[in-house]
Amino acid sequence: MKIRIIYYLEEAFSSFRHNWVMSFAAILVVLISVLLVGSFIMIGHVVEQIASDIEEKVEIDVYLKDKAPKEDLYSLERKVKAIKDVDSVEFISKKEALEIFKKRNKNNKDLISNIPGNPLPASYRIFLKDPQKIENVATKIKEFSENETTVEEIKYGREFVRKIFAVTRWIRIIMFVLIVFLIFASLALISNTIRLAIYARRKEIAIMRLVGASNWFIRWPYLLEGTLQGLTGAALAIGILASVKYVLQGKLEDQLSWLMTALKVSPIFYQNLLLMLLTAGIVIGAAGSLIALRRYLKT
C-alpha cells in the first residue's frame, strides 16, 4: 500500500513537471477562479458589515408632550421596555435635546442664536434587538399610546427604513448568487483545462486499461495532480488577495475610514476564508480531474 501511494505521488509530480504548459494553464484557471470567488466573498463581507452597521443605527424616536405627568412617562417607559424586541430605551430630556441640536448645527450660528427658548421636546430613543422588527415595535408603541397624554409623535422613517432593508436584502442575494455561479464556472473551466491535458495522454490511458489497470489505479495520479494544481492556484490567489488588502488598508485608511472599519474584522474571518479558499482550490482541482477522466474510464 505504501509503495502504491509513493508511485501515485511520483506519477503526479512527474506529470506536473513534464506537462508544465497544461499544468500552468490549470493553475492559472484555479488562480483566477479562487481570486474572483475570494474577492466577491471579501466584498460581500464588507457590504454585509456596512449594511449591518446601517441597520443597527435604525431607531425609534418617541417625542413626548411637554406637560406629560412623570407617572405617565414612567408607565410608558415600562410598557416599551416590556416589548420583547426592544433592546434598550434611552430618555433624552428637553435640555439634552437642545444640546444635541446645537452640537449638530455648531457651524450654523445664526440658526442657534435665533432659537426661542427651548422648543424641542423630550423623547425616548428606542434601540432594537432585531432592526427588521422596527415596524412591529412602532405599531405596538402606537397602540398603547393612543389614549395616553404622553406621546406627541412617533418617528422612525418608515419609508427610508423599508428602502434600506430592501437594498441590503438584494445585495446579500446578489452576492450569494454570484459566488455560487463563480464556483460552478470555475469547476467547468478547470475540468475543461484538465480534459485537454488528459486528451493528450489518452493513448497512455488506453494502454494502461489494456494491461489490466483498474480505473482507480489510473485515476489517482491525475487526481493528485489536479489537487496539486488546485492547491498551488489557491495559494497564489490568497497571496494576491492578502497583498491587495494590505495595500488598500495602507492607502485608504485616512480617506475611507468607514470602509477600513469594515475591513478590520476579526482575524477568525480571514482564517476561515483562507481555509475555505484553499479547500475550494483543492476540491476544484480534484473534482475537475475526476470529471475530465470520466470519458476515458467508462466501463
UniProtKB/TrEMBL annotation:
<dbReference type="InterPro" id="IPR003838">
    <property type="entry name" value="ABC3_permease_C"/>
</dbReference>
<dbReference type="InterPro" id="IPR058204">
    <property type="entry name" value="FtsX_firmicutes-type"/>
</dbReference>
<comment type="similarity">
    <text>Belongs to the ABC-4 integral membrane protein family. FtsX subfamily.</text>
</comment>
<dbReference type="Pfam" id="PF02687">
    <property type="entry name" value="FtsX"/>
</dbReference>
<dbReference type="InterPro" id="IPR040690">
    <property type="entry name" value="FtsX_ECD"/>
</dbReference>
<feature type="transmembrane region" description="Helical">
    <location>
        <begin position="228"/>
        <end position="248"/>
    </location>
</feature>
<feature type="transmembrane region" description="Helical">
    <location>
        <begin position="269"/>
        <end position="293"/>
    </location>
</feature>
<feature type="transmembrane region" description="Helical">
    <location>
        <begin position="20"/>
        <end position="43"/>
    </location>
</feature>
<dbReference type="GO" id="GO:0051301">
    <property type="term" value="P:cell division"/>
</dbReference>
<dbReference type="InterPro" id="IPR004513">
    <property type="entry name" value="FtsX"/>
</dbReference>
<keyword id="KW-1133">Transmembrane helix</keyword>
<keyword id="KW-0472">Membrane</keyword>
<dbReference type="GO" id="GO:0005886">
    <property type="term" value="C:plasma membrane"/>
</dbReference>
<keyword id="KW-0812">Transmembrane</keyword>
<keyword id="KW-1003">Cell membrane</keyword>
<keyword id="KW-0132">Cell division</keyword>
<feature type="domain" description="ABC3 transporter permease C-terminal">
    <location>
        <begin position="177"/>
        <end position="298"/>
    </location>
</feature>
<feature type="domain" description="FtsX extracellular">
    <location>
        <begin position="58"/>
        <end position="144"/>
    </location>
</feature>
<protein>
    <recommendedName>
        <fullName>Cell division protein FtsX</fullName>
    </recommendedName>
</protein>
<dbReference type="Pfam" id="PF18075">
    <property type="entry name" value="FtsX_ECD"/>
</dbReference>
<keyword id="KW-0131">Cell cycle</keyword>
<feature type="transmembrane region" description="Helical">
    <location>
        <begin position="170"/>
        <end position="194"/>
    </location>
</feature>
